[in-house]
From TrEMBL:
It catalyses: prephenate + NAD(+) = 3-(4-hydroxyphenyl)pyruvate + CO2 + NADH. Its EC number is 1.3.1.12. GO terms for molecular function: NAD+ binding; prephenate dehydrogenase (NAD+) activity; prephenate dehydrogenase (NADP+) activity. PROSITE patterns: PDH_ADH. Gene3D superfamilies: 6-phosphogluconate dehydrogenase C-terminal like domain, NAD(P)-binding Rossmann-like Domain. InterPro entries: 6-PGluconate_DH-like_C_sf, NAD(P)-bd_dom_sf, PDH_C, PDH_N, Preph/Arog_dehydrog, Prephen_DH. It comes from the Bacteria. One of its GO terms (biological process) is tyrosine biosynthetic process. Pathway: Amino-acid biosynthesis; L-tyrosine biosynthesis; (4-hydroxyphenyl)pyruvate from prephenate (NAD(+) route): step 1/1. This is prephenate dehydrogenase.
Length: 296
């Protein structure tokens, strides 16, 4: 498939926040679409997308927004992808490709697929890149450069549709991996969802401390805590939806985590320094491996 030039005549983004606007900027920059339309329930976001120049037009009408679209990219919070699909599905043309960027895959596949008419191809996707910021002004075209993009197409998904979505992301600089949706949800539960839950917990614990101590937590914030506050500043709606929609995998990983935490608690209580040192050496090695894989 061609690595430059127009890949889709018309692309429509449903939801134009951090991820939607980053991909729209990349699509504009690489010339992958002749025309970009955005649809968002927030009028200020629609206006901003046109003002910033990565959208050619904007609409609050879901059906009108996808009319003649060759590709529709759902970039809403995970919990409303199905509602959005229900709203735009009647406007889709035969042969259109629908994709998404949601952080959970099984629930979105379930919620979206049921609304799509025959003859429309759904290629679920998830970029492993983001920030703690939200909205169309927070996006940037380079966000996906050198990052992984996971595709989770159900068995039988049209191969040409998969290849076109793959090319779109390759042009954004992503490396592509194809994975089963259930496996995706388990892997992301450990690499992304649990870290966010831990960050929310730590910062919440600090916040629950008395007012006096809280001031000191902010004043003397050490870099470890500071790093957690960045993650804990992530979008509350998106992350509420992630935990509610990847419940099983998150609860399973959380159980394993609590057991490991209890192990550390015991090691500290009984002065078992060898156990602490052995674990901390293993985890330091993982950090080095992530740096070597250029994912730090
Ligand atoms: N933030 C990240 O780090 C990150 C990384 C990878 C994937 N994702 C996924 O990307 C998706 C979008 O996240 P984001 O960070 O861009 O969020 P965001 O809050 O920046 O943007 C979401 C946009 O969707 C709009 N919206 C909300 N409900 C809508 C609806 N029913 N119909 C149309 N528009 C609606 C909002 O107005 C907003 O403009 C989520 O599914 C998330 O799981 C996020
Ligand atoms: O860098 C960040 O701020 C992120 O949290 C990005 C991050 C993650 O790495 O966990 C968050 C959610 C995703 O779906 C993908 C990426």
């Amino acid at each position: 498939m061609s690595k430059d030039g127009i890949l889709f005549d018309r692309v429509t983004f449903i939801g134009i926040g951090l991820i939607g606007s980053s991909l729209a900027r990349s699509v504009k920059k690489t010339g992958s679409a002749a025309h970009i339309t955005v649809c968002d329930i927030n009028q200020a976001h629609r206006d901003k997308a046109v003002e910033l120049g990565f959208a050619d037009d904007a609409s609050g009408d879901f059906i009108a927004a996808v009319k003649d679209a060759d590709l529709v990219v759902i970039c809403t919070p995970p919990g409303v992808c199905g509602d959005a699909a229900a709203a735009f599905a009647p406007g889709l043309k035969e042969g259109a490709i629908v994709t998404d960027v949601g952080s959970v895959k099984q629930s979105i596949i379930h919620d979206v697929s049921q609304h799509l008419p025959d003859g429309v191809h759904f290629v679920p996707a998830h970029p492993i890149a983001g920030t703690e910021h939200s909205g169309p002004e927070a996006g940037f075209a380079e966000l996906f450069d050198g990052r992984w993009l996971i595709l989770t197409p159900p068995a039988g998904t049209d191969e040409t549709a998969i290849a076109k979505v793959r090319t779109l992301w390759e042009r954004a600089g992503s490396q592509i991996e194809i994975m089963d949706a259930q496996h995706h949800d388990m892997v992301l539960a450990i690499t992304s969802h649990l870290p966010h839950l831990i960050a929310y917990t730590i910062v919440g614990t600090a916040d629950d401390l008395g007012e006096h101590l809280k001031q000191e937590v902010i004043k003397f914030s050490a870099s470890g805590f500071r790093d957690f506050t960045r993650i804990a500043a992530s979008d509350p709606v998106m992350w509420r939806d992630v935990f509610l929609n990847n419940k099983e995998a998150v609860l399973e990983i959380l159980q394993r985590f609590s057991e490991d935490l209890t192990f550390l608690q015991r090691a500290i209580r009984w002065g078992e320094g060898d156990k602490l040192e052995e674990l901390f050496s293993r985890t330091r090695k993982i950090r080095r491996e992530i740096i070597e894989a250029k994912q730090a």
